[in-house]
Amino acid sequence: MLYVWLDAPIGYISATKQWAKAQRRGPGSSQGDWEKWWKDEGTRLVHFIGKDNIVFHCIIFPILLKMHRGFVLPQNVPANEFLNLEGRKISTSRNWAVWLHEYIERWPDRQDELRYALATILPEFRDSEFTWKDLQDKNNNELVAILGNFVQRVFVLCHKYYDGKAPRAGERIEQDLALWSSVHGNAEEIARHIDQFRFRDALASAMNVARAGNKYLSDNEPWKLEKVDPDRTRTILANSLNVVAVLSIVLEPFLPFTTDKLKRMLGIGTLPWSEAFRTDLIGEGQELGKPEHLFKPIPDEAVEAEVERLHAMDPQPSNGTGTKIMEPTSQATLKPNIAFDDFSKLDLRTGTILTAEKVEKADKLLKLTIDIGEPTPRAVVSGIAAHYAPEDLPGRQVVLVANLEPRKMRGVESQGMVLMAEDANGKLVFVQPGEPMAPGAEVR
User: Fold this and answer.
1) Is 26 helix (H, G, I), strand (E, B) or coil?
2) Do residues 51 and 21 lie in contact, with contact meaning Cβ atoms separated by under 8 Å?
3) Domains of the chain with CATH codes
4) How deeply is 3 buried, as exposed, middle or buried, from its count of CB atoms within 10 A (0-12, 13-18, 19+)?
């Protein structure tokens, strides 16, 4: 197999030479100069790979380039983990896969829905899993309910009140300034995440722009204000239209077909990234296109049909009883055995969460107050802020490691550890009693 390591670099470079040759449009064309992509000191070479190619791209390939001399070396090699499918490893030889050309045939004009679902589960730090149910949930609860709902309402109201023309924004008040602070703050986060190759976080920040716009529209209720304060209504809808314009910029790397629709509806062309920090992209009197539904809900039967189709092509062997032997999803490697005496040192107790609040300047941490039957409740810091909202936690029962040595986290002393289970997608859920238990019950 050694020849593969030598052939691959030649293929990368020769493919670039062939591409440059096809791009050449006459003498001096910079696109036709292949060497600038591989030899120019100003070139930033980045390799996007799977984790099984780390050794080649981080050691062998750079050594070959360095020995040849004159070639730039990769500045970064972002390596993704593995993506699983419906509880099993993807296998094209076994037909356990979603074939892209078949998806496009069965789901015409819905490329962005799949792009979105995949981008939200990119296995950047651990193996993840694609399921059709997750695609349905992401589409219905996020693309339709948040992004699509916001854009649809803005355009419907502009056509209803202003004959399809953009209104003039008046003086901005506190709610307007808060909106733009959120929008531009998220745009800065998107740029930072992309530069660090954290595309899941970048997309989450881009969707937060839509969430900010949706909340702004719902909080201000321009459909109620029109009769009593038409000037304020115009300002609200002018701001909302400009948020849609910002969305056409920040979502383009992830949802190119959707942003094409947005630009067509707004009557604008492609805008550079720097324009995402403006608040006046859509001026007064701008002709607006007709409202379009950016996305449509995915019904249960469509998901069930895809899962049935996948299993119909499933060649997994049977164990002789008619039950198919399923490959497990990727999980963390089991740790070495320990003595029973070591395990018995753990003091595991049931507890009830009394309060929950975010830890200041810590996006991932929540401070929990937990009753485990002691005179004074325990304060426990847990990294679950991305999975649970603080207001949803009081009253939940959990299992706590009660004799863990206290540890300060962001200035808060944590007096124990809440046990969580983590799936292949990185989702965390509480380990908890199957039925209500008194706080302080021993777990053994």
Assistant:
1) coil
2) no
3) 2-80 (3.40.50.620), 98-312 (1.10.730.10), 341-443 (2.40.50.140)
4) exposed
In 24-110, which ranges are continuous DSSP H helix? 35-38, 54-55, 61-68, 100-106
Residue 408 backbone phi and psi in degrees, to 5? -85, 130
Of 9-18, 155-164, 283-292, 297-306, the range with the lowest mean pLDDT is: 9-18
C-alpha to C-alpha distances, 305 to 33, 118, 133, 295, 313, nearest whole angstrom: 49, 20, 11, 20, 13
Model confidence over 117-135: pLDDT tens digits? 999 999 998 999 999 999 9
Q: Answer whether 327's CB lies under 8 Å from 343's CB.
A: no
Predicted confidence band of residue 319 (pLDDT cuts 50, 70, 90): very low
* 187 burial type by CB count under 10 A (0-12 exposed, 13-18 middle, 19+ buried): buried
- By the 8 A CB rule, do 268 and 247 touch? no
263-300 pLDDT tens trace: 999 999 999 999 999 999 999 999 999 988 999 999 99
Q: What are the tokens at 94? A: 């076994």
The tally of CA atoms less than 13 A away on the side-chain side of residue 293 is 9
Predicted TM-score of the model (pTM): 0.69
Give how far the C-alpha of residue 335 lies from the chain's centroid of Cα atoms, to the nearest Å: 30
Sheet strands (E) in 65-140: 79-80, 83-85, 88-89, 128-130
Q: What is the pLDDT of residue 38?
A: 93
Residue by residue, DSSP assigns 265-332 as HHT-----GGGGG-S-SS-TT-B-PPP--S--PPPHHHHHHHHHHHHHT--PPB-SSS-B-PPPPP-P
Q: How far, CA to CA in Å, does 135 sit from each of 85, 142, 202, 373?
A: 12, 10, 19, 42
Distances (CA, A) of 142 to 146, 263, 312: 5, 20, 30
Chain-centroid distance of CA 300 in Å reads 23
